[in-house]
Amino acid sequence: MQSYLELLSYGDKGWGDEFLAGAWLTVQISFCAYLVGLVLGLLGAWGKLSGSRITFVIAEIYTTIVRAVPELLLIILLYYTGTSALRDLLISIGFGEDIEINAFGAAVATLGFVQGAYSTEILRGAILSVPKGQMEAAKAYGMPPILRFQRILLPLMFRYALPGLSNLWVNILKDSSLISVVGFSELLFTGKTAAASTRHYFFFFLVTALAFLLLTILSNIFIQYIERRTTRGVRRA
């Protein structure tokens, strides 16, 4: 029987290289999906605050559905039906019959779509927290809208949104494990495969949990660094 150290070694007899690859894939999926979620969150927050009835209704339906439907079910629906619909669309406009949707891109888009709903509410609240007087003063000085957004709204909004966005990053690290249900070889899928192959279920699920814990600790260290940078010169209550 192999020892635990041998089970985590590199090469054909161990699973160390597979776990490292799975952890790296988890970080890649999480980071890319987080960026997609931020873009969707900005669009959603703009839709809710733009004053347009149409954009408000679209953003409200989007956030309500995503937050109401269980994430696992939503990921399964989006991953399979979304990729099938996109493939059929590309075939119908002449891209060929043998076209395949990139699995990594599908996973990122699916997770990003789900996270975008939560980013919408975080960013909407952050925008509403920005003092109106600062935007009005910039407007009175003749600053164009793009410059007001870049120099006034965005820095202040980011400072107010940072706690919520930080929590969202930790959540998406964990939620990336949901992609394992569609056979994507991220960290949890690697742990399940190793456990099933060796029958060391408790050991490999414990290793998987510790790997997620390590990723979270490293993320928290980086988040604290960002918070110190963004709050320099800000008086604390």
Number-wise, the strands total 0
Number of domains: 1
Tally of separate helices: 9
| Average pLDDT taken over every residue | 84
Helix-strand string: HHHHHHHHH
Structural class designation: mainly alpha
CATH class: Mainly Alpha
What would CATH call the homologous superfamily?
MetI-like
Strand coverage percent: under 5%
Helix content: over 70%
* Rg from Cα: 22 Å
Could you tell me the CATH topology label.
MetI-like fold
Describe the structure.
With 237 residues, this protein is mainly α. The protein has one domain: MetI-like (MetI-like fold), CATH 1.10.3720. It is built from nine helices and no strands. The chain has helices spanning 4-7, 16-49, 53-68, 71-92, 103-129, 132-140, 145-175, 187-198, 201-230. Helix 2 packs across helix 5, helix 2 runs antiparallel to helix 8 and helix 5 (103-129) packs across helix 7 (145-175). The mean pLDDT is 84.
Topology:
Elements: H1 4-7, H2 16-49, H3 53-68, H4 71-92, H5 103-129, H6 132-140, H7 145-175, H8 187-198, H9 201-230
List keywords for this structure.
about 240 residues; mainly alpha; MetI-like fold; 9 helices
Structure in a nutshell:
With 237 residues, the chain is mostly helical.
